[in-house]
Amino acid sequence: METMTVVNLVKLVSFVLYVICLVCDTVLAAAAITNAAEIIEQPFFDDISPRNVTTVVDDTVVLKCRVKNKGNRTVSWMRKRDLHILTSNIYTYTGDQRFDVIHAPESDDWDLKIEYAQQRDSGIYECQVNTEPKINLAVYLEVTGTARARIMGSQEVHVKRGSTISLSCAVNVHASSVSWFHGSSVVDFDSARGGISLETEKTESGTSSRLMLTRAALRDSGNYTCVPAGAVSASVLVYVLNGEHPAAMQTSSSGPCPSNIALILLCILSICPCHRTTISQTMSCILTLICR
Questions:
Q1: Which residues have C-beta within 8 Å of that of residue 173, sequence separation ≥ 6?
Q2: 124 to 51, 127, 142, 172, 224: CA distances (angstroms)
C-alpha cells in the first residue's frame, strides 16, 4: 500500500514539473516574440532629404525629418549652437514665432519651418527621437546674404559663325528652376532653329546651368540672361563673327572694346545680304582698330 502511494506521489510530482516547464517555455517564447517585435518596431530616420540646406535672407526654409515607427515616442528639433529645444511633437517651445513644426496627421514627417530666415540662423539643427539611447539627425542650414546668378567666364563672348556657343552660370542657392533669355525672349528649345540644349544641376554650393547652341549664326548674337527662380539674374553678350579674325575674336578683357559699336556692326552685317564679304572685312578692320 505504501509502495503504491509513493509511486502515485512521484507521478504527481513529475506531472507538476512537466506543467511548470511547459508554462516556462510558453512565457519565454512570448518574451522572445515581444523583444523581437520591439526591435523591429524601433524608430528610425528615413534619411532621404539633404543634410545641407541653403537659403537666402528673408526667405522661408523647411528642414526635413521623416521618422518611421515613431510609436508613442517624442520627436523634437534642437538648435545645436545653444542646445535650445525649438519644438516637441506638434508644440513649439521658443518665443521666436518664425519657428514652427509642419506635421500632417498620420504622417511620418516632422519638418522644421523657419520664416524670414536670417544669417544668424545658420548652423546645425538636430531632429531627435527620445528612444533609449536617443537617436538624432543633424541638418546644416546656411543663410546667405543675396541669392544671385553669376556668369562663368567673360561677360562678352566672341565666337565664329558655325561653331558652338557655350554659356554657363552659377547660382549660390538651390534654385527650383533656371531660364535663359535671348534679348527679351525666352530661349525656345523646340524652335525650328534646333541645336539648343540646357543642362541644369544641383551642386553642394547651389545650382549650375549651361546653355549650348550649336551651329552659331549671326542672328544668335545679342544679350543672353540667366534667370534663376528667386535670385538675381546675370547677363552675357555674345558676338557671332563671320570668318576667323583673331583680333575680333578677343574678349573685352584684352582692351576697351565698345560693346555697342560691335553689336551695331553685327546688326548691319545680318540685315545686308548684299556684299556681305566686303562688309565683313570692313567690320573686322574696324573691330581690330577700336579693340587694339
A1: 54, 55, 56, 144, 147, 206, 207, 228, 230, 231
A2: 10, 10, 9, 19, 38
Residue entry with cell 579693340: 291
Output the furthest CA–CA distance in the chain (Å, rounded): 139
Res 163: pLDDT = 94
Per residue in 270-282, pLDDT tens?
Answer: 444 444 444 444 4
Backbone angles phi, psi at 163, to 5 degrees: -90, -170
Q: What is the mean pLDDT of residues 232-254?
A: 69
Task: Check residue 176 and give its pLDDT.
Answer: 86
Under a CB-based contact definition with an 8 Å cutoff, are residues 153 and 187 in contact? no
Q: What is the pLDDT of residues 45-80, one digit of tens each?
A: 988 888 999 888 878 899 999 999 999 999 999 999
Q: Tell me the one-letter amino acid at 260.
A: N
Task: Give the model's confidence band at 4: pLDDT under 50 very low, under 70 low, under 90 confident, else very high.
Answer: low
On whether the CB atoms of residues 232 and 147 are closer than 8 A, the answer is: yes
Report helix angle 276-290 to 259-271, nearest 10: 180
Q: Do the Cβ atoms of 109 and 79 come closer than 8 Å?
A: no
Question: How far does the chain reach from its first CA to its final CA, in angstroms?
Answer: 133
d(CA 47, CA 35): 25
Per 3-state DSSP, what percentage of the chain is helix, strand, and coil (rounded to 5)?
A: 25, 35, 40
Per the CB < 8 A criterion, the answer to whether 130 and 145 are in contact is no
What span, in angstroms and rounded, lies between the C-alpha atoms of 269 and 163? 18
